[in-house]
Design goal:
The structure is a homodimer of 314-residue chains. By secondary structure, chain A is of the alpha+beta class. Helices cover 35% and strands 27% of the residues of chain A. The N and C termini of chain A lie close together (10 Å). Chain A contains 10 helices and 12 strands. Chain A has 2 domains: 8-168, Ribosomal Protein S5, domain 2, CATH 3.30.230.10; 175-303, Alpha-Beta Plaits (2-Layer Sandwich), CATH 3.30.70.890. The longest helix of chain A is centred in the C-terminal third of the chain and has 20 residues, at 201-220. Chain A is globular. Chain A binds chain B through residues 22-27, 157-160, 165, 167, 169, 195-201, 204-205, 207-213, 215-217, 219-220, 222, 225, 228-229, 234, and chain B through 22-27, 157-160, 165, 167, 169, 195-201, 204-205, 207-213, 215-217, 219-220, 222, 225, 228-229, 234. Strand 8 of chain A pairs antiparallel with strand 8 of chain B, so a sheet runs across the interface.
């Protein structure tokens, strides 16, 4: 962040893994290996204009109200009323429909860049709310489990939607996140539509036990507990059929020694947590399973802790 | 615990608050202010015999297989096969049907006392499994959220039933547990029968956010987050009508500054967490609401951290 008042600022916002296993809709972590870059410039025209969209996705609305980055900065300007407009250039590094929080990253990058133009910048929790408004354009509802880690970095819990509270949770040391992105498109709306509207009470108890154990394991660096509690018994089984080869990719990760493996966001990307020394083999084993089904993929093995969105030029 | 091999041993097992708000069936804390005391003696007769039951409850089965303490020690002897029998004297300090883990405490006290008679005592996680077998006689199913805190002490998360794993979670400092027990009887089975067999997906997300925030707040001593996340949005609303005056007692606690307030176990006892200096007033305010309905009650304000079950004589 800066003291504000720049004429032009560029921010990088990382990709993120949402729905971290047992933390459906509430828990995500940032994936710094890729992200979106947004440049915001002071403009004489009022409101928000989008002057260019490039990178790995170009086919996005230039109409600010229908663009995640545009809508997020509109929300910011509605509160800030700085007397000038903002022009945005968006450079997409995150593929659409990958389950890696691309729409969230564009919204986060845009508000972080635009914030640097204001004489009195907002704090991060306000930026979170603006970015959520933007992300809602893409996902159809207010979700925060990608926006929050992209903005704050690392493993992030968010409680509440209207008045979100953020908790950065320490990632267990010596553990890497492995993420594999098969070259498939899966719309978040479609992945949501397969979900049941209710949860069986016994599954509810099981999942909450796993969630409490997962959080507790992160705070105490208890890898045995983490392994025991990683399994999502509710969402994954409903969505896995949307991802060709999911069961085999997951099995490859677990056989390679992963602590756990599940769907990244709404998919089709798949993530695993694994002890550092095994991470390269697990990436390769997961990618091999996609390759066996004729699917190209990219894979990363990264630290879970990272800095979150940041200005790279202003 | 001792090195084992005693001829006679007496153990105290504390009461406990199960279903701690957002931790239905998984989270409990011990209430050291009251408990059951069980004496186990080596007996020539094989198996388990119950020679006396006294204290605040006397009307319990003397048949070991139908008694929570008896059944728990049977489970222990089945594994230990020490070549002698065990006679139990049970002194109940916890009223039945109070929602304070009375059946769990009898089972825990019995296995801790009987364990001291064995030449090679079991470790605590085995004792937990034996006590669960005993508690199942009373509740009709394997539950662990009273047994685990009574045995281990403090705020305890248990994950899994067949192979339970226990995590002792640090209680926030400067916070006291207030527990008020109105003189009513509420059968756990009845309180279970009112529960829906499914949970709405949006309530599920809300509750899991609160649970993750609650656990996180305990590890980081974040009282703001604790207050925000204390509310049980699923179980409490289904059970509260079984407890006369619940809404008013809860309101009295919250108006007195409690961080949160909910049903202890299956009720009718009610617990709150509150900053130390406000605890006495909150106890009084909660009891006053019961009194206004003609209900006598007992109240306690205690530290959440405590030692758990222990030998007091061997």
């Amino acid at each position: 962040m800066t003291a504000g008042g720049a004429k032009r600022a560029t921010a990088f916002a990382p990709a993120s893994v949402g729905n971290v296993g047992v933390g459906f809709d509430i828990l995500g972590f940032s994936l710094d290996a890729l992200g979106d870059t947004v440049t915001a410039s002071v403009s004489d025209a009022q409101g928000v204009s989008i002057t260019s969209i490039g990178g790995v996705v170009a086919d996005l609305p230039l109409d600010a109200a229908r663009n995640t980055a545009g809508r997020a900065v509109q929300a910011l300007l509605e509160r800030a009323a700085p007397g000038f407009g903002v022009a945005l250039q968006i450079d997409k590094g995150i593929p659409l429909g990958s389950g890696l929080g691309g729409s969230a990253a564009s919204a986060v990058g845009a508000v972080v860049a635009a914030n640097a133009l204001l004489p009195s910048p907002f704090d991060k929790i306000d930026l979170l709310k603006f970015a959520m408004q933007g992300e809602a354009v893409a996902s159809g509802a207010l979700h925060v489990d990608n926006v929050a880690p992209s903005l704050f970095g690392g493993l992030v819990l968010t409680v509440g939607v209207d008045n979100p509270r953020v908790k950065q949770i320490p990632a267990p040391s010596g553990v890497r996140a492995v993420v594999v992105h098969p070259h498939l498109f899966l719309a978040t709306r479609e992945a949501r539509s397969v979900l049941s509207r209710s949860v069986d009470m016994s599954d509810f108890v099981w999942q909450t036990a796993n969630l409490a154990g997962f959080i507790s394991a992160c705070y105490t660096n208890d890898l045995d507990m983490l392994r025991e509690c990683f399994e999502d018994v509710i969402i994954e089984r409903q969505r896995q059929s949307l991802i060709p080869g999911f069961a085999e990719v997951r099995a490859a990760a677990m056989n390679g020694g992963a602590l756990g493996c599940s769907i990244s966001g709404a998919g089709p990307s798949i993530f695993a947590w694994v002890e550092e020394q095994r991470a390269p083999l697990v990436v390769a084993a997961m990618q091999a399973q996609f390759a066996a089904r004729g699917l190209e993929s990219e894979g990363w093995a990264v630290e879970i802790e990272s800095a979150g969105a940041r200005l790279i030029e202003s």
